[in-house]
Amino acid sequence: MQTSLFNLLCELFKVKNVEIALFCGTPSVHQKITMQITDGLNIVGYCKISEKKEVKALFKHEEDIFKTLHGNGFTNTPQCLYNARLKDETYIFAQTTTKTKNSKILHQLSAMHWDFLSQLHQKTKTSLPFEKSDFYEALNLLKQNLSYLSVADAKSVSAAIAMVEKHYEGKEIMFSFYHADFTPWNMFVEKGELFVFDWEYAKRTFPPFLDAFHFLTQVCIFEQHKDAEGIMANYRANRHIFAEYFDNPDFSYQCYLLGIISFYFDRDKDDFNKSNIQIWAALLRLLQEHA
Fold it and tell me: What is the span of the domain harbouring residue 196?
């Protein structure tokens, strides 16, 4: 590691000699090096590094998200300590994230998660026309990428888009922040409070509480290795909980699925994970069959 970078990290995290664990990042078009920074006992933060200009834009987006959240009094998230370019073409993003040996990770959706999402909605909610929302933009992006889907999947996705547009079009809707990767590996519990990090893909104007569907679905896929039928069975078993937060949970689940499919098409272009897309499209069909 360059001495200048090491000294910068020591200064930012106020640690005499930081210790670093290096991660190569999740394979994707936005893959980046991530450094876990410790003081020898506890994790005090993370530093992300990239030479890609599109990743630099994500760093700026995440910095702005943090500023808005903290400005609204929502503090169970990191703070950006540094977002700038080094002398070469390397972009650095450093953030606080204090984890101790007592920190816990929850792998099942709980009241703590719902409380976090409730507070997120209350602190960031805003009313605006559907056609001016990030969610509307996501649906339009998805419509542009339908040709990448199989005929059956495109039919299910198109039907869901038509249903959602009919429900929302021309209306003033209450939207709020959407984390977009609300999963166990992006959060931890410390002293009875949930802290959530990695907001680089967050959206400002999405239907509230959709992150709960992401948590349930991604845990089923990546930790429990369930297929679409298994995920749907899990959802059906917990639908009564979702019904406490959604007037129509099945409709909202379809909103989430459209959003996640759109995101991966937009981010990964021709290099998207087909198996995940197929699972999400199959979930749409299962929801539509039970409508």
Answer: 111-289
Whether 145 and 57 map to the same domain: the answer is no
Task: Say whether both 55 and 148 belong to one domain.
Answer: no
Judged against a pLDDT cut of 90, whether residue 1 lies above it is answered with: no
Bridge partners of 126, per DSSP, are: 175
- Give me the chain's average pLDDT, please: 94
Cβ within 8 Å of residue 144, ≥6 positions away: none
Q: Across the chain, which distance is largest between two alpha carbons, in Å?
A: 60
Neighbours of 189 (CB within 10 A): 16
Distance of CA 119 to the CA centre of its chain: 16
The Cα–Cα gap between 29 and 187 comes to 23
Cβ contacts of 161 within 8 Å, gap of 6 or more? 139, 142, 143, 258
233 three-state secondary structure: helix
- Same domain (yes/no): 121, 83: no
Please state the length of the chain: 291
- Evaluate whether residue 93 is within a structural domain: yes
> pLDDT tens digits, residue range 103-158?
999 999 999 999 999 999 999 999 999 999 999 999 999 999 999 899 999 999 99
